[in-house]
Design brief:
The chain is α+β, with helices and mostly antiparallel strands. 43% of the residues lie in helices and 23% in strands. The chain is built from 25 helices and 27 strands. α17 runs parallel beside α19. The two termini are 83 Å apart.
Length: 701
């Protein structure tokens, strides 16, 4: 029910006739019971009628027999005047249409007169009825005023002359009206002028606002108007016209409601963490861009993600990962043009809708800015973090004219960029779809491959230079797919890490490596690589213990190789896990030392048993740009810290002589042996071992 209807219902519920006269004796408000008292038809009276007009209607209805209109009018004028001077009683009893009617006059300064007509014909006890009706009258009047003043919204009634009839406290408070502007008879223009001068100026300007209000009034129809003001307030006005030319309005402050709606709308289309547009809003922008593409504009979809973000998120923790994403979002906004749409699609995946472009080189420039900007070091919660990005670009209309095709092709280009070494960008080219299909085949085939025993381990020896004997065999994983053939570990290990399968696959490698090593001579160790994701698994220690126990292999014969990225977090948990493994008797090696996030602080944080010099420093030995000084420094560093050193990728005699001359402890590479199948590895270590083979006859089951 609207506020206007609530007022009407309150008037009609009264058990007596009621009318309100202004100070100039114009009829303002009345109910149907008032018309009934004088036997008047419902349309005989109307708000705005003068006292003389009402007297005429009453006489014509057969009341006050013997009175003329002028005589009745003069008698009523005299009664109102004597009431005002308090020279006459406020109540009269008279007979109208064979009914006993009690009329009560109440003068309200500044308003006018409240007159009630009460039928007391059937009262059994006149005095009791009088007392009861007086109490009822007071209660009804109080209810009427309370109903108006306690409405949830502001209410005002304006007459046909654009003067205030009544307003409630909420209306006055909403516009901070002083008392003199709340009085009946106040011109609406005075109220509006005050509002405009005291902070309630419409955004559209006062004149445009007034023109709109005049149009609403002249149309004479119920309407809803949303008014926005310069101070930020938003007010909903419901306009309800009355038959006499006046109107009733309710005013509601909906500022917070609109702000909440705007926030909800924003959150539905923006990422909560970075405040970038999300996938939904990006799709909407793409749909709108399709028409521009059809008109001949050159656009580009740029897809990119963060290189090795999962490693950082898993090692440094999700709080650091979230902070990193927020900094990346800020850098994306810096790199793109203001009108271009950049979105976070999920996780560490982002996209930019760029355009219009003059040529594809504009998209290339954007990709280069993204790579350069995002790769700058960040300081996050005391950690110095460096993250890279790979970028894929699809240009419209050449690479597609609709959003779905462009997104697909940009994603294919991104996959190629990552496959080409990361930290770069690639444009879409025909044929890239085949590479994506291959990746999907690898994803779907990993779990099935483990079930079908398609994975195998091969073992590459590490030779101890001082004794010229095999000291260790590194277990390396191989996958022979029934349809795709041999799949490189570089290819499938990265996919396994990204989809979270590396933990299960790594546990299988650990179990198989320990089982095979148990068949070798007792002085030969087995080395197993741990992925950073696998190292952070809560069941790592349990899986290591189970693999050793099931194989019957002493912990001293197991060597675990980790990369420096495991130590990125520099957390107590990481060091605790390493010390627990060391306490079990397991040797710990740092693999690929000198690449990625190398820092001497890692070597101070944990005393590794071995440092493996990355093959990139060994392969150029013999050339003019050889890394002799780096190799020499790493070997010297290892010796000073009590750590042995292994040179990876030794393939020539010159490389062997160089690392031997600098004091390297072990070598690994094709010069000595390629990775060998399980049976050949057993034969090699048995043949070259100077000691009896322990467990060499153990079954392979």
């Amino acid at each position: 029910m609207t506020n206007t209807h609530a007022v009407d219902a309150a008037l009609e519920a009264m058990p007596y006739g009621l009318c309100v006269w202004s100070e100039d004796l114009t009829l303002q408000v009345f109910n149907s019971r008032y018309a009934w008292t004088f036997g008047l038809a419902s349309d005989a009276l109307a708000a705005g009628m003068s006292l003389r007009e009402c007297c005429r209607a009453v006489i014509e209805a057969g009341n006050y027999f013997g009175y003329s209109v002028d005589e009745l009018y003069e008698a009523m004028i005299d009664r109102f005047e004597r009431q005002k001077r308090q020279e006459a009683p406020s109540q009269y009893e008279q007979f109208l249409r064979d009914r006993s009617i009690r009329t009560t006059y109440t003068n309200r300064p500044g308003v006018g007169w409240l007159v009630t007509h009460e039928d007391i014909t059937d009262a059994s006890d006149h005095l009791t009825a009088l007392s009861k009706r007086e109490a009822d009258l007071a209660r009804q009047a109080m209810r009427f005023e309370t109903a108006v003043d306690n409405m949830a919204h502001g209410l005002c009634m304006i007459d046909a002359d654009h003067k205030l009839v009544i307003c409630n406290a909420n209306y006055a408070n909403l516009y901070e009206l002083p008392d003199h502007l709340q009085r009946p008879g106040t011109l609406l223009t005075d109220i509006l002028d005050y509002r405009f001068e005291n902070g309630m100026r419409p955004k559209e300007g006062p004149m445009a606002f007034l023109h709109r209000r005049v149009r609403t009034i002249s149309e004479g129809k119920r309407s809803v108007d949303i008014c926005e003001f310069e101070n930020g307030q938003i007010i909903s006005v419901i306009h309800q016209p009355m038959e006499d030319g006046g109107w009733v309005e309710t005013h509601q402050d909906i500022t917070e409601q609109r702000r909440s709606e705007a926030r909800i709308h924003h959150l539905a289309r923006h990422d909560a963490l970075t405040d970038l547009p999300n996938r939904t809003l990006f799709a909407e922008e793409m749909a709108m861009a399709e028409s521009r593409i059809r008109r001949g504009e050159m656009m580009a979809v740029v897809c990119f993600d963060l290189d090795h973000f999962k490693v950082i998120n898993d090692t440094l923790g999700h709080a650091v990962g979230d902070a990193l994403l927020q900094q990346v979002a800020a850098r994306i906004n810096y790199a793109k043009r203001e009108h271009e749409c950049a979105a976070r699609l999920g996780g560490d995946e982002f996209a930019i809708l760029a355009g219009p472009l003059r040529s594809p080189s504009d998209a290339a420039a954007l990709a280069e800015r993204l790579i350069a900007t995002i790769s700058k070091p960040m300081e996050i919660e005391g950690h110095r973090v460096i993250i890279g990005t790979s970028v894929g670009v699809a240009v419209a209309p050449t690479d597609g004219e609709d959003g779905e095709t462009l997104m697909k092709n940009a994603d294919l280009a991104l996959y190629r960029a990552k496959g080409d070494g990361r930290g770069n960008y690639r444009f879409f080219e025909k044929g890239m779809d085949a590479a994506m299909q291959r990746r999907r085949a690898i994803e779907s085939g990993l779990k099935l491959g483990l079930i079908r025993n398609e994975f195998k381990l091969v073992f590459q020896p590490l030779m101890e230079l001082e004794s010229n004997r095999i000291s260790c065999m590194e277990a390396l994983l191989r996958w022979e797919h029934p349809e795709m053939g041999f799949i490189s570990p570089v290819e499938f290990i990265a996919v396994a890490e990204e989809i979270g399968f590396i933990v299960q696959l790594g546990e299988w490698v650990l179990q198989q490596a320990c089982r095979v090593a148990a068949t070798w001579p007792s002085d030969i160790r087995v080395a197993v690589n741990l992925s950073p994701v696998q190292f952070k698994s809560r069941r790592l220690l349990e899986s290591v213990e189970r693999a050793l126990e099931e194989a019957g292999l002493p912990a001293s014969r197991l060597e675990l190789e980790i990369t420096e990225s495991v130590l990125l977090s520099d957390s107590d948990q990481t060091l605790e896990t390493l010390h627990t493994l060391r306490a079990m008797g397991i040797r710990i090696s740092m693999d690929d030392f000198g690449t990625g996030y190398s820092s001497l602080s890692y070597l101070r944080a944990f005393p590794f048993d071995k440092i493996k010099i990355d093959r990139s420093f060994i392969e150029d030995v013999g050339s003019k740009d050889a890394n002799f000084e780096i190799i020499k420094a790493v070997i010297a560093l290892g010796r000073s810290l009590g750590m042995s050193t292994t040179a990876e990728g030794v393939e020539t005699e010159a490389q062997l002589d160089a690392v031997r001359a600098h004091g390297c402890d072990e070598i690994q590479g094709f010069l000595f042996s390629r990775p060998l199948p399980e049976r050949d590895a057993l034969e090699l270590v048995t043949r070259l071992s100077p000691r009896p083979a322990i467990g060499a006859q153990r079954s392979y089951a």
